[in-house]
Amino acid sequence: MSERPPVSLIQRFDESSAPTLTPREIKHRWIEFHRQIRLMSGTRFQRAAGRLLGEDTLRYRLARLLFRPLLRALRGRPRTPATTKLTATSAQAIFPVNYRPRQINFSLAINLETVDARDVAVVVVDSAQASAIEIIGQLNETLNETTAEWLFICDATHDDDERRYSAARLHAASSREHDVVFADESGPNPFAPILKSPAVGPHTLLSYNVVGRPALVRVETLFAVGGFLPEAGWAFEHDAYLRLSESGARFHHLNTVLPAGRTDRDFDPRSLNEDTRRVVAAALERRGWRGEVTSGELAGLAHWRIEPPTPLPRVDIIIPSRDRVELVRRCVASIEAVTTYSNYGIILLDNDSVEPATRQYFDDSPYPVVDCPGPFNYARIVNRGVSHSTAQFVVTLNNDTVVVTPDWLERLVALASLDDVGIVGACLMDPDGRREHEGIVIAPYPQHLRSDSNYPHDDPYVRATRDVAAVTGAVQMVRREFWESLGGMDEELAVVMNDVDVCLRSLMTGHYVLYTPDVELYHHVGSSRGSLDPIEDRNRFIRRWDIFGTFRDPFFAESLLLLGEKMFYFPRDS
User: Does domain 106-287 have CATH number 3.40.50.1000?
Assistant: First the structure.
């Protein structure tokens, strides 16, 4: 695969001049992380116990052990709904759980935040009175005539104080190295703001307009890509950001919610969805990707699918297993019964199975069985399996999964074939059909995103094919040669974090990690590995990537913290 610059914000600390974290420092980070979880997400008992007994002390762990049966019994009792002082209506979801809209005195704030009209050309558009063609004409006329460095678009429904305040805040955050400077916005529901990631993932941008408003766009850069196109209709900004991204424009996110964002009309599917579908289809065509685009379930969301290469490349499905023959038998049977892809094989990896039924299954299997003896080391087992493959692509697949989507390999291969993509993952569901993996977010520690529990907010982000920091090794599609160029998984991360680590190393080479909701599998979590969870693996991972320290997930809202099973709003400096 081609050489590419590293993805923004990704840095290894065990290969840099930065001081190595000591065991004491790592322990302190763990203590603080668990303290935050108990403080924000824990029960009253956990919070009180933490204050009385200390965090992560022997007496605290002993108290948890003694009172765990009582806590479990109490959890099963129905709770009385808590009262709220919020003015949000019942129809308004509150997300994150602690978010409250800020009340800003703009008349006072503007005295502190000023911007010269010679620096920023403010264009006020009236989407309720003018057509998309008329607005695009107005914007292009400004581009042709202005001598300002930046363009700021805002709707007539926002007052002058809001416009000036947002423009000034964005301009203060800009530099010569930026082409687009954008901020979070309140959105249609002020109790669930649109929070954005520090990096603009190019594949996420195909799914929906991740930049939005308020935003400053460098006039010179926008002019160079042709300004705004009349054929884009109401998706004219989304189309411009796609072309800017393709040209290598540099995006910068200001980590705060500002006024003068998009209006309710900008989220109207009747005026937006068809135009969005059309501009995304045009972006696929510019990139030479054969595929189709349909409108997604939410306003402004595009569902794009590209075709796999022809002829279909060979795919080997690598399945580690150790006894538990019922799991591997069910997994393989689902592949054989469901898969529509014609050019695939299966490689079974046997980690010292001893049960007669398992040994008989392997002996009778039409697929090659590779012996992987020794103590359980997932990374070593997978690497050994990949070394026995000659296919162009490999899929690491847990033996406790069941394939649901018939064309799963077509969809994964199509994405993994893209020149700028390293690893692709899928949606995993628990046996009850609840989503238990929709990509991995690192905020501040790697955890599975789950819209059925810790991300209970229906928005374009969770429904999109998107760039992510990592995907679970339970299902990872990768080009074999690229895997080998990475050196495979780190075998010193024997049990956990090896899948996240290989994804971050992919990003270090400039190759994105994608999650697609279009591929679904059932996953019986922990059926294979059980309770193995060595702290040595986790500490090595923390030390390598400075987790709980400077690490920032490039593709997840930087003002969100996932503590326990809840998302919290915690704006950090950009």
Answer: no
